[in-house]
Amino acid sequence: MQTRVKRHPERGHYDRETVDAILDAGFLCHLGFVVDGQPYVIPTLHARVGDVLYLHGSPASRMLKEMGKGAPVCVTVTHLDGIVLAKSVFNHSVNYRSVLVMGAPRSVEGDEKWDALHAIVDHIAPGRWEEARQPSDKELKTTEVVALSLEECSAKIRSGPPVDSPQDRDLDVPIGVIPLELVRGDVA
Amino acid sequence: MQTRVKRHPERGHYDRETVDAILDAGFLCHLGFVVDGQPYVIPTLHARVGDVLYLHGSPASRMLKEMGKGAPVCVTVTHLDGIVLAKSVFNHSVNYRSVLVMGAPRSVEGDEKWDALHAIVDHIAPGRWEEARQPSDKELKTTEVVALSLEECSAKIRSGPPVDSPQDRDLDVPIGVIPLELVRGDVA
Q1: Does A115 contact chain B (CB < 8 Å)?
Q2: Which of residues 20-79 of A touch B (CB under 8 A)?
Q3: Is position B3 within any domain?
Q4: H runs (alpha helix) in chain B
Q5: pTM of this prediction?
Q6: A39 within a domain of the structure (yes/no)
Q7: Is the residue at A172 inside a domain?
Q8: Which residues of B touch A76 (CB under 8 A)?
Q9: How far is B71 from chain A (nearest CA, A)?
């Protein structure tokens, strides 16, 4: 499996419950694809519906030309949870949750496209699909949605306090975790 | 230039002041590389020093094997700033700042490696390089750092309120921006 976690294998998770929770906890993903041997990594928006990840490409040009052609992609979702301060620089780390999904996306049309856009909008801004004006046929035509199966995916998680080497335990260095959180403010 | 912004070209920025500010505003990047035609996108940590972006690979295995071989990579840094609520679903958007850097990284050794690690650690947790125990020779050997020139880079930014279509302006739909911010809490 290409998404198997090789470095720090103890941080790898392969159950869909863990993967889904990480995908559902945010809407920003980074989509990787290849054009003439050059990798591109583009931030875009996603929502999961069952076993499928839907992507909506605002940076459509380069990205979506490659989609639906069967070219392989990698979609990565990462949440930063904390900065881990250890006794030694070497044992400093970051707490995070990430998911990698690999596969070949397919273009989405018709009712599935409508439902996918509904899912993406309500994932980013709950309730807005019903609240705002829904897409016209013309708008739908200029919006691209692709679907990526979750068949090949894995999660990687680091959490908890620093892990210091035994020889460092008595050093007089303050340790701990600085929590990080993406906070939503009030509408302005 | 491969990093030229094609979709929403008005959001593209090519001055180093803008690019540097986005790179310096965070320490999480997504590194894209290709193995046997398959793109991989791996979250990792960065710091900028002058015209160079240093990357420290904790997910070292797959990633760093490809580095220093002259293989092309793409490093993307994205900050989410807000959710943009418009009168129509179609004009909903996200405020963000992102940078793409492309090139072929080189391995970093010796004094440059020491200075790069210093920069990365102090970028993530200011002051910790002096406060914590600094790396031993053995630890340095098991840490990989690569450098990527900022010669080929671009920024893309969306900011400000929703932009509604003229025909939607009188719709009775609340609009605005939900601010998003990655907040650091107190050490615990």
Answers
A1: no
A2: 28, 30-34, 37-43, 45, 58-62, 72-76, 78
A3: no
A4: 16-24, 60-66, 110-124, 128-131, 137-141
A5: 0.95
A6: yes
A7: no
A8: 30, 41-43
A9: 9
Contact (CB, 8 A) for A127 and A134: no
Per the structure, the count of domains in chain B is 1
Query: How far apart are the CA of B16 and the nearest CA of chain A, in angstroms?
Result: 20
Sign of CA dihedral B132, B138, B140, B142: negative
- Is B4 contained in some domain? no
Q: What is the pLDDT along chain B (188 residues), one digit of tens a residue?
A: 678 888 788 899 999 999 999 999 999 999 999 998 999 999 999 999 999 999 986 544 556 665 667 789 999 999 999 999 999 999 999 999 999 999 999 989 999 999 999 999 999 999 999 999 999 999 998 888 999 999 999 999 999 999 999 999 999 999 999 999 999 999 99
Check if B81 contacts A (Cβ < 8 Å): no
CB–CB contact B183 A183 (8 Å): yes
Q: Do residue B90 and residue A60 have CB atoms under 8 angstroms apart?
A: no
Domain limits for position A109: 9-81+95-162
Considering only A19-28, A137-146, B173-182, which range has the smallest mean pLDDT?
Answer: A137-146
What pLDDT does residue B143 have? 87
What CATH number has the domain bearing residue A99? 2.30.110.10
